[in-house]
Amino acid sequence: MNIILIGYMGSGKSSVGSELASKLNRKLVDLDDYIQKKESSSISKIFSEKGEIYFRKIERAYLEQILLENNDIILSTGGGTPCYGDTMQFLIENKSLKTVYLQTSLDLLTDRLQKEKDKRPVIAHLKTKEDLNDFIRKHLFERSYYYNQSSEKINTDTLSITEITDSIIEKLL
After folding, report:
1. Are 68 and 94 in contact (CB under 8 A)?
2. 14-24 confidence digits (pLDDT tens)
3. Is 40 left (phi over 0), alpha (psi -120 to 50) or beta?
4. CA 34 to CA 66: how far, in whole Å?
5. Which is nearest to 66 in space by CA: 15, 102, 30?
6. pLDDT at 139 over 80
7. CATH for 2-172, among 3.90.79.10, 3.40.50.720, 2.60.40.1120, 3.40.50.300?
8. Any residues with CB less than 8 A from the CB of 19 and at least 6 apart, and which?
9. What are the CA-CA distances from residue 56 to residues 31, 53, 131 (Å)?
10. So where are the chain's domains?
11. pTM for the full model?
12. Distance CA 23, CA 49 (A)
């Protein structure tokens, strides 16, 4: 069974994915890293040169390719992955995987992302913490419909990476 981690940027998908893969002795695939390798380009460059629609199309194609070619992996997705087209429905209907939503509060996401804003092209243009908070609030409102369809939800606010990982293992295995 593949375990797919979803949630907003800054929710801990990569960190949790890494520890989960280590504990379960599974391969970790980071969808954004996979796309960058296959496209020989950064995510921000793909967005700026080819646009978001192009990116979302290849993101879905590579997601399907990863799931077709792998079994028993941990897959860390991008924050928007489940929210475009019928991707979340595709994940729900795939019986060889479970999705886990790493649910993180608006304030915690704002604090985390404020510190790494320059490394994230989607939010780099936001000038103030208030602007960032408003941006995340809007996205969470739009995306919560998709995120909340996950097989499991884990509120990460008060948990360490190890506690989140252990909770996923307890719920799914």
Report:
1. no
2. 999 999 999 99
3. left
4. 9
5. 30
6. yes
7. 3.40.50.300
8. 161, 162, 165
9. 12, 5, 25
10. 2-172
11. 0.95
12. 39
